[in-house]
Design a protein that fits this description.
This protein has about 210 residues and is α+β, with helices and mostly antiparallel strands. It contains three helices and 13 strands. The protein is elongated, with a radius of gyration of 25 Å.
Length: about 210
């Protein structure tokens, strides 16, 4: 089942339980002046406060959610890459589709046997923003242990080669990452394809052109 759907179902169930608890608690306080009802109502309000902290994305909320996840699934593992910039690692754990983002090359993942989906690296500012996306569906499964770190060879530095495809009478730009995986390199909006310049021995440009996506 998709992870976002699971999260929605869990959130809806928690909301229903909270609403029932609040209504029952307030009813008992109003009609029976029952101390237990007051306790239930207070607990429901505390739960509401927790949900607000969680949904606002505060640092404290993130820490609480991480602690709860660790209790339910065990301690996470860390995959370490050589790329120290902005990046996102997408992977599958069973039927769940998960992702991890980082800006220091350390990607926190859930422990278990992972099927890597893709890795995306981004860098630059303004009009010079670029991204490189590496598809990892053919990579072997990766087993990680909770609480441990493990190196992962994906992402920069990239190697670019221009190869001649005689059967199509064209030149092709082949980009591979540090692990040898084929990579698509583009500006963030995929509007400007990479270019190519041919220089003579004196360093003068004698030909130039652009590649095309696809």
């Amino acid at each position: 089942m998709n992870q976002s759907l699971v999260n929605s179902v869990v959130l809806a169930a928690c909301g229903l339980v909270w609403l029932i608890a609040l209504v029952v608690g307030l009813w008992r306080v109003r009609h029976r002046r029952d101390r237990r009802g007051l306790i239930v109502a207070v607990l429901a309000l505390v739960a509401l406060l927790f949900v607000v902290v969680f949904t606002t994305g505060t640092k404290y909320g993130a820490e609480v959610v991480a602690a709860l996840r660790e209790r339910m699934t065990g301690p996470p593992a860390v995959l370490v890459t050589s790329w120290q910039g902005e990046g996102e690692l997408e992977y599958r754990l069973g039927s769940r589709e998960l992702s991890s983002r980082s800006t220091d090359g350390r990607y926190t993942v859930q422990a278990g046997t992972l099927r890597l989906s893709s890795f995306t690296a981004r860098a630059g500012t303004g009009e010079n923003v670029w991204e490189a996306r590496t598809m990892l569906y053919e990579a072997p499964s990766l087993t990680v242990t909770g609480g441990q770190e493990q190196p992962l060879e994906v992402g920069p530095p990239y190697t670019a080669k221009v190869e001649s495809e005689k059967q199509f009478n064209r030149l092709a730009l082949k980009v591979t990452d540090v692990g040898g995986h084929s990579t698509n390199l583009s500006d963030a909006d995929r509007s400007d394809a990479p270019g190519l310049e041919v220089l003579n021995k004196q360093g003068k440009v004698v030909w130039q052109g652009k590649f095309a996506y696809g």
